[in-house]
Amino acid sequence: MREKLEKIREEALGKIRSVDSMDALNDLRVAFLGKKGQLTDVLKSMKDVAPEDRPKIGQMVNDTRKELEECFDSMKKTMEEALINEKLKKEVIDVTLPGTRRVLGHEHPCNLILKEVEDIFIGMGYEVVSGPEIEYDHYNFEALNIPANHPAKDEQDTFYINSEILLRTQTSSVQIREMEKGVLPIRMIAPGRVFRADEVDATHSPSFHQIEGLVVDKGITFADLKGTLDEFCKLFFGKDVRTKFRPHHFPFTEPSAEVDVSCFKCGGKGCRFCKGEGWIEILGCGMVHPHVLEMVGIDPNEYTGFAFGVGLERLTLLKYEIDDMRLLYENDLRFLKQF
Ligand code: DAH
After folding, report:
1. What is the mean predicted confidence (pLDDT) over 317-323?
2. 32 Cα–ligand 1 center, Å
3. What pLDDT does 34 receive?
4. DSSP 3-state assignment of 154?
5. pLDDT band at residue 151 under the 50/70/90 scheme
6. Which residues have C-beta within 8 Å of that of residue 270, sequence separation ≥ 6?
7. Fewer CB within 10 Å: N-end or C-end of the chain?
8. What separation in Å is there between the alpha carbon of 309 and the centre of ligand 1?
9. Protein residue with its CA nearest to atom 4 in ligand 1
10. Which residue has better confidence, 269 or 32?
11. Alpha carbon nearest to ligand 1 atom 12, residue
């Protein structure tokens, strides 16, 4: 009996010490100490032991049970601690590791340029306004003195929705909407999207942006127009640029002009950038046509005004020296990241 006990004890201790999981440890506890366990079996066979030996053997069984229980408990504790340590190790946060950076976007080059232009005109006391992209023929053409037979009204140039409604081809429509409000004087710029039935190439797109300008007040003259746009060009392209006003025709201004700015790359001597011209064309402008004023109910004998329109993409391409307009629309991050 004594030997049997000793054997159970040794076997149990050996197995407990080399156990590798909590489940296996529990199984062992059941196998040795459980109701049908090996140690219980020994107790059950006490009846075969000589009566005088029973107390001694009983004592031995109890001692062994106690020793095994202690061994089980301490093994359990060791394993629990190991599990916790392992978990802690896994969950450790290294605060010195660099985080996952979010890629921050930024404004599109056209928006950067628009901000510059807006800042310049806001600095001169202008208001920034807007008008609808889907527009009545009336605002886009008729009220701007553009008669029914004008080539700009051709379907090849204009996206019509029906005979009265179209996608505006110019921001000049906002001039009429502002003047119609009847609040004078007016000092506004109106940036916005315009549409033309053009094929895509390096300088054309069916959708692009313009910035319209309009001033209406008593005593406004061509000198105000020249001074304003000359100042704009100096603030936008650099203080050394000169401007040139070339006579031109727009139906809604009289007189009308196109403005060239001396090449800001070569100072006007002529280079590759200005194609040897020394001048770069940038915008259209003129004095608001008296008939346009009359049509919105403003007395041209009391009020005069000037207007101008400039392409936002054109300004962007010039300022950043980009040679293909399509780059602005392709949404290629490798390109956009540079601004
Ligand atoms: N709307 C004209 C265009 O799209 C540009 C323009 C020219 C606007 C002269 C004006 C202006 O306000 O006075 O070609």
Report:
1. 96
2. 99
3. 86
4. coil
5. confident
6. 263, 276, 277, 278
7. C
8. 4
9. 170
10. 269
11. 308
User: What is the secondary structure of 23-34 as a DSSP string?
Assistant: HHHHHHHHHHHS
Q: Is the Cβ–Cβ distance between 219 and 304 less than 8 Å?
A: yes
**pLDDT band for position 63 (cuts 50, 70, 90):** confident
- Give the span between the Cα atoms of 236 and 221, in whole angstroms: 23
Compute, in angstroms, the gap from residue 256 CA to the centroid of ligand 1: 9
231 pLDDT more than 90? yes
C-alpha 66 to ligand 1 mean position (Å): 102
Contact 250, 265 (CB under 8 A): no
- Choice from 172, 204, 289, 292 to test ligand 1 binding pocket (greatest atom count within 8 A of CB): 172
Shortest-distance atom of ligand 1 to CA 288: 13
User: How far is 288 from 307, CA to CA, in rounded Å?
Assistant: 6
Atom 5 of ligand 1: nearest residue by CA position: 309
- Stretch 66-84: mean pLDDT: 89
**65 alpha carbon – ligand 1 mean position (Å):** 103
* 230 — pLDDT class (breaks 50, 70, 90): very high
Residue range 55-72: mean pLDDT, rounded: 86
The two structure tokens encoding residue 293: 């004023």
pLDDT tens, position by position, 197-224: 999 999 999 999 999 999 999 999 999 9
Neighbours of 263 (CB within 10 A): 23
Mean of the pLDDT values across residues 56-78? 87
158 within 8 A of 134, measured Cβ to Cβ? no
Report, as an integer, the average pLDDT of 69-83: 89
Asked if residue 209 lies in contact with residue 222, where contact means CB atoms within 8 angstroms, the answer is: no
Contacts 24+ apart (CB under 8 A), 237-241: 237/261, 237/264, 237/318, 237/319, 238/264, 240/264, 240/267
Binding pocket residue ranges, ligand 1, CB within 6 Å: 170, 172, 212, 250, 253, 284-286, 307-309
H-helix or E-strand containing 261?
Answer: strand 253-262
Query: Half-sphere exposure (CA, 13 Å, Cβ side) for 97?
Result: 5
State which of 189, 214, 250 you would mutate to test the pocket of ligand 1, scoring each by most atoms of that ligand within 8 A of its C-beta: 250
